[in-house]
Amino acid sequence: MAFTWGMRRLRGASKKKVAPVMSWSESTSEPEIAIPPEFQCPISIDLMKDPVIISTGITYDRTSIEKWIDSGNNTCPVTNTVLTTFDQIPNHTIRKMIQGWCVEIGSSLIERIPTPRVPLLPCEVYEICRKLSSATRRGDYEKCEEIIWRITKLEKESEKNRKCIIENGVALALCDCFEKFSGDEKVTAILGKILSLLTWMVPIGWEGLITLAAASSFRCIAGFLKSKDDDTARENAAFLLKEILSLEEPQVHAFAEENGVAAAFLELIGDSVSSSATRSSLTAISQMVLHKPEIASAFLEIGLVNQTVEMIIDGENSVCEKALAVLDAVCDTSEGIEEVRRNALVMPLLVKKILKVSEQATRSSVSVILKLCRTGEASSAVEEAVRLGAFQKMFLVLQVGYGEDTKEKATELLKMMNTQMKLMSDDVDSSVEFKHLKKPF
Description:
62% of the residues lie in helices and 3% in strands. By secondary structure, it is mainly alpha-helical. The N terminus and C terminus are likely disordered.
């Protein structure tokens, strides 16, 4: 109690009043309630819901002091003393007094403060990992299931718990567990739960991804991706396969071909399960084509270009960005360029999306236009780009600046289009002036 009365002196014994928003006629029905200063957090001046004591002996609301520390502060807000430790000890005495006061007041303006749960500590997470790893080595499925459900419960309790779980090695233990039981069809439910947990533990880390990239694990995740009755599992599988494919390991891409994930990704996009699932699938497709260009033919046969164009037309900006990256990757192959060229909507969309979606989308659009203008029916592609206003857009790209590579591509396109515009003098006014544009140098 010495602290609480000390805090009262620090704040001049001020009391925060809580008053409802009500009409004049109602304002006299319930008096204003003054919160005792010893129950107020020194930072927020609000009623403390989870009072904790820090190393200086001062009590704060847990949320407020955590925000203070997370902002980079290492001193006590009241005393300005450097903290010797960031540990926070629950102040049960003050909490019980606050709860008793809430009950005593009995007002609709004051909600009774529930007993908060103590956040996880790193040592507790280490113990969870140890038990899970031990059960995994023994092949004790039931014990693993028990621990996994406990992890699920703990992460739902608070954001702090989730952060503690992520930072203390749970992901790797879950990956090991997944690989251990990935060949057992009887435990599909718990394997699906592991996938769900792993999706918010990114970055999982190289060691964990390598474990998931093992043949049995990859086959199991691909099975979830191709499942028809659980869209959540499909979405989780797409997300993790995207992470695994980022390893660029040859055997990973070989497993992808063997397990038919190309068609599964396109089917997931076509089913419009969620924006997240679509983004993951598009990113994974880009990774597969860039790593192994010859696989592009398999994607083209099942309608990749038309489906990607639909995503550019109808998708939100984040989806559109990924779809443009897919077109860019596909255009690294001769088959891909021809397929893209045959779609009449591609060039108008590419020109339209420049400077409209994101920096990465602009880079991809400029890259695809250049690839179309360099090969095959180059003159017709350049002419179409000019008619659609790409000449002006390239000037703007040079002004804004999207990296040296994109500037070089834009400069090359400007030279091509300038030459083409002279040939099109009867149809295009080649005397168009761009005085409003600043020089890019």
